[in-house]
Amino acid sequence: MPTSAAAAAAHPTAHPIPDRHGQNLFTTDTELHTLLALYLPEALRTHMRPHFERLGGLAGGLLDDLAGTADRNPPTLKQRTRTGVDEQKVIKHPAYVEMERLALSEFGLAAISHRDETLGWQGKMPPLVKYVLTYLFVQAEFGLCCPVSMTDSLTRTLKKFGTPELVAKYLPRLTSLDFDELAQGAMFMTEQAAGSDIAATATTAQRQADGSWRLAGDKWFCSNPDAGFAMVLARADDAPAGMKGVSLFLLPRELDDGSLNHYRIIRLKDKLGTRSMASGEIRLEGAVAYLVGEEGRGFQQMADMVNNSRLSNGVRSAGLMRRAVAEAEYIASERRAFGRALEQMPLMQRQLDKLRVPSEQARTMVCQTAQALARSDAGEPDAYALLRILTPLIKFRACRDARQVTGDAMEVRGGCGYIEEWSDPRLVRDAHLGSIWEGTSNIVALDVIRAVKREGSLPVLRAHVDKLIGDATELTPAFAAALRDTMARACALAETAAREGGDVLARQAASALYHCTSAAAMAWEASAGGSAARLRWAQLVLLHRVLPRDPLAPDALPADWHAALVRTAA
């Protein structure tokens, strides 16, 4: 009998393939606990901890099982009843429906920002609570988090721009936690000839005598197509050409008499990822809709919804990276080869660091951006300008990083990582979505530059970063100087990109601003929370992602930075 077989026979409970399934994704994430102590008030953090723990347990077990089942059993479109009634319905697998109940009803992920009481907490929740819950949920299930985000964003846009009558009529269903009563939201914006080019929108809107509108046209990519409500861009018949002719409308799925509205789901999309959640093509055939906000300002009003969704995209990508990295770390700690655990091997240690750095950058930027959102909603000076640039930064860079991190983490599991029984293939497939939906990388990088030009966001961001560095009292002067110098150079690059003809630098400038901002914020977190690991990751951001390197020479942290690591560790 071979030695390995003899060992297995002698120890029948031992198994060479580590399986992390069943772990609590919150309680095992001690670095997240440290961050929450910095970003959430103690009373709220104490109140939410049991809810974080419950969702972390579900995400590591039952929710992960449901997500796998829903991924293998995607929704289908039923065009007619068996008696021939033309009544379309998206048929969802029971596993997906149960995930809807958990997300929308039990944890209130779509309604939490719009209620005065959720999960037993009296008063408004800060955005970070919602994003931490989403961060945990998405580590098991990505697809459903798109409808959750769109419902949240649609509700925000309706409250902000809708008439009092429209808000009073439809808001209760959007903020309800009763699973049989609550409504989901969607965003029908994309057309075949008008993807990111909103000015080319061809869908038409005709005003009716009762104040409603009738919409006609095709929408090419509509996720959650059977949602209770959708925000739709369309052009009034008498509107001018271009962006100024586009208006925003609220489209209910059902009319007041309970019948279906006049639009059809033509077909569902066969997607690379997010297979659990339906995306389809919509044909509007005189559908009843209601104007939201000012006529002719549809894009500006939809932009608020899109920006909220972009932030959610960044949160979801951060969650995917965390799940991928945590799986890789677990495998490396449990898997033995050549007489040692993988995590004891220097090359594996280096590879794990290269996975951790972008993952930790992303969740730092989640916390920073959520904080800016709370300050902006409270009307603090300069907070909107800060939010306006942080949002496209995290959407651009974190979503791109997730594609590489999930792929490289899959490799740590080896051949098993390529097998659909494990979470890795689903993470890889879903990760490619983030940098496409709600604006491709080029569009979002250009939006960073637009924030520089139109909102004056750059000096606000630089002042914010300078304060973070100044408040990080445990840094050595050399590392603090490196953080300030690189941020200054990143801002100079962004200023160049904002000049005439500078668009070609948009992606480079966006990456530079993201890396320098996240490094400074991580250094502040390390100093405030006493995390030596976090300080090292902040240093690695500069070393590996910002500063020039010689690819033919070994790299190492500068000696005058290293003292900061030793002092914090002590």
Please, could you describe this protein's structure?
The chain has 570 residues and is an alpha+beta fold. 54% of the residues lie in helices and 12% in strands. The strands form 4 sheets. A 5-stranded mixed beta barrel has the order 6-7-11-9-8. Helix 14 runs antiparallel to helix 15 and helix 14 runs parallel beside helix 16. The longest helix is centred in the middle third of the chain and has 37 residues, at 298-334. The protein is globular, with a radius of gyration of 24 Å. The N and C termini lie far apart (51 Å).
What is the chains' assembly state? Answer: single chain
Q: If you average the pLDDT, what whole number results?
A: 93
Distance between the termini: 51 Å
Number of strands: 13
Trace the largest sheet across and list its strands: 6-7-11-9-8
- Main pleated-sheet profile: 5 strands, mixed, barrel
**Given the helix and strand composition, which structural class is it?**
alpha+beta
By DSSP (H or I, 4+ residues per run), the number of helices equals 18
Using the CA coordinates, give the radius of gyration: 24 Å
> Which residues form runs of ≥5 with pLDDT under 50?
1-10, 565-570
Could you tell me the strand content as a percent range?
5-15%
Judging from the principal axes of the Cα atoms, what is the shape?
globular
Q: Which bin fits the share of residues in helices? A: 40-55%
